[in-house]
Design goal:
The chain is α/β, with parallel strands linked by helices. Helix 4 runs antiparallel to helix 5 and helix 4 packs across helix 7. A 5-stranded parallel sheet has the order 2-3-1-4-5, sandwiched between helices. Helices cover 54% and strands 13% of the residues. The chain is globular.
Length: 221
């Protein structure tokens, strides 16, 4: 099962993903956690370029293609091999292709249809079984990120430096995608306490989880 986490900056994706991973592992699932951009040695090198605060001259088209290049490597080297370990293979990914549509499409105004074609090529048509969207007011999220950056300067990157209107367009894009495909998206209010957010994620995910094979071979993993 392929589960992705999406949301505006500061929405708590990584925290919630790691909590969900621990919960799933306790129940016997073979869980891989990963992230975008990155997830591979090649992808991490691309990530460094994409998030470098000094790369202010980067064009929106360049940005979209770099994200897609890293994603193509990530899908084939990491995500697909783990998903083939069904029914126990579960991949949790901090951002995926919907981020490109939200940030480079809705945020930058690039053509959504063209981005969809590029994304389909990069992913080989792979789509998440479930996308967990943590919704949060962008000003609240950016304040959270600023506080975190005060403790760790590496957390404040080129994406967070953009104007507030840009981040609002990104959030609006996420909401539009979730509304258009409600069967795939689970929308959770990320302004709630961490425990409540996690509880709602588990509640929404539980009916979709593949049944565990309780045979001796599977049980011995």
């Amino acid at each position: 099962m392929f589960i992705t986490f999406e949301g505006p900056e500061g929405s708590g994706k990584t925290t919630q993903m790691n909590r969900l991973a621990a919960w799933l592992r306790e129940r016997g699932y073979d869980v891989l956690t990963t992230r975008e951009p990155g997830g591979t040695a090649i992808g991490d090198r691309v990530r460094a370029i994409l998030l470098d605060p000094v790369a202010t001259e980067m064009e929106a088209e360049t940005e979209a293609l770099l994200f897609s290049a890293a994603r193509a490597q990530h899908v084939r080297q990491v995500i697909l091999p783990h998903l083939r370990r069904r029914p126990l293979g579960v991949v949790l990914c901090d951002r995926f292709a919907d981020s490109t549509l939200a940030y480079q499409g809705y945020g930058h105004g690039l053509d959504l249809a063209q981005l969809a074609v590029i994304t389909a090529f990069a992913t080989g048509g792979l789509k998440p079984d479930l996308t967990i969207y943590l919704d949060l007011d962008v000003e609240v999220g950016l304040r959270r990120k600023a506080l975190a950056a005060g403790q760790d300067a590496a957390q404040w990157n080129r994406m967070e430096q953009r104007a507030l209107d840009y981040h609002r367009r990104v959030r609006d894009g996420y909401r539009a995608m979730a509304a258009a495909e409600p069967q795939r998206w689970l929308v959770v209010d990320a302004a709630q306490p961490l425990e409540e957010v996690q509880a709602q994620i588990r509640q929404g995910l539980a009916p979709r989880l593949p049944a565990l094979d309780r045979s001796p071979v599977a049980g011995g993993r």
